[in-house]
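hey
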């Protein structure tokens, strides 16, 4: 215990010099102990150091212990440092307030050496366990992320293999989605504000937007000519089928918060139109999830600028002219305004790259 504990440091904040010396004597043989006579001095000390535990007197002149505790918990760097507060017998009615503010324990004054050592040892040990647990969680999260990436690669690979005319469409569309997300993050528009985490999920999930193609007959999916109305009606079912495939995966995993939830959303909504004339649910305007609206632009742009069996690739300028003409009907007009800054970057990508 002593060899491990010697690596830990403690900051004691108390305006009573006698208490400071006493607590230092009790703990210095095991821990690295720092002392501060005021909350103000403690904050200066904490600018460059982060102890493993803070012992804090509640009643001090100037900055009270409660105020210092509030500041500690508001500081992202220091919020996780356990705070053990010191209080006199007559101050015990304030315990609830200290706990509410984030303290983990208290010691009554006058202090007992045995109690001090026991409480400090306990919370140092708990802090060590917490850090180990956080490390294990981080490692498990990293492994889960790699597993998700592997599943995504397999599923998107199946969709690409099934669709002989795909020819890099999945990765190109994901790259366009990435550029669109970048544009929305930089614009920080109140109505279109997204977090980087949500943006990452959309980018990853976009690779599954056409997973429903696996259920479309070859005679329709691989047809080198334009589809008949009857064939197109079958083709449109890929949105619902894709969402159902992903829904099954979500139910198996039991997790509706992963990128799969965004993938389901994109699969079923990326063919909806802003004017309500899309499919499968004829959603109108903002009823369409933002992820689906983003995917619609990326999907359309790549379809226009890549070769297909029944049409040649259009130039960037020609594709953008069509997309702008469809803004307000097919595409979200405000989102298109925001994305104008990043559309030139679309032109720098080469189909098939």
């Amino acid at each position: 215990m002593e060899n491990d504990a010697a690596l830990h440091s403690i900051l004691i904040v108390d305006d009573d010099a006698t208490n400071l010396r006493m607590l230092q004597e009790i703990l210095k043989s095991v821990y690295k102990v720092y002392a501060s006579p005021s909350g103000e001095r403690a904050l200066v000390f904490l600018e460059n150091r982060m102890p493993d535990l803070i012992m804090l007197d509640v009643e001090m002149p100037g900055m009270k212990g409660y105020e210092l505790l509030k500041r500690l918990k508001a500081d992202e760097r220091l919020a996780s440092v356990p705070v053990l507060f010191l209080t006199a017998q007559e101050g015990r009615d304030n315990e609830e307030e200290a706990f509410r503010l984030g303290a983990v324990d208290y010691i009554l004054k006058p202090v007992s050496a045995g109690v001090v050592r026991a409480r400090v040892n306990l919370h140092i040990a708990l802090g060590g366990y917490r850090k180990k647990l956080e490390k294990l969680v981080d490692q498990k999260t990293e492994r889960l992320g790699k597993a998700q990436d592997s599943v995504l690669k397999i599923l998107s690979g199946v969709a690409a293999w099934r669709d002989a005319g795909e020819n890099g469409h999945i990765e190109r569309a994901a790259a366009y989605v990435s550029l669109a997300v970048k544009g929305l993050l930089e614009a920080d528009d109140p109505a279109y504000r997204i977090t980087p985490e949500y943006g990452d999920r959309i980018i990853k999930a976009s690779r599954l937007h056409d997973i429903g193609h696996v259920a479309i007959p070859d005679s329709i999916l691989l047809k080198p000519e334009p589809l008949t109305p009857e064939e197109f009606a079958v083709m449109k079912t890929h949105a619902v089928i894709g969402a159902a495939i992903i829904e099954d995966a979500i139910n198996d995993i039991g997790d509706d918060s992963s990128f799969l939830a965004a993938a389901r959303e994109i699969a079923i909504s990326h063919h909806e139109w802003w004017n309500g004339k899309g499919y499968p649910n004829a959603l109108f305007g903002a009823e369409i999830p933002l992820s689906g609206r983003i995917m619609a632009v990326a999907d359309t742009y790549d379809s226009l600028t890549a070769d297909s069996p029944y049409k040649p690739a259009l130039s960037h300028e020609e594709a953008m002219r069509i997309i702008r003409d469809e803004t307000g009907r097919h595409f979200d007009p405000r989102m298109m305004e925001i994305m104008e800054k990043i559309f030139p970057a679309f032109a720098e990508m080469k189909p098939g790259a």
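The longest helix spans residues 113-162. The domain at 163-347 is CATH 1.10.3210.10 (Hypothetical protein af1432).
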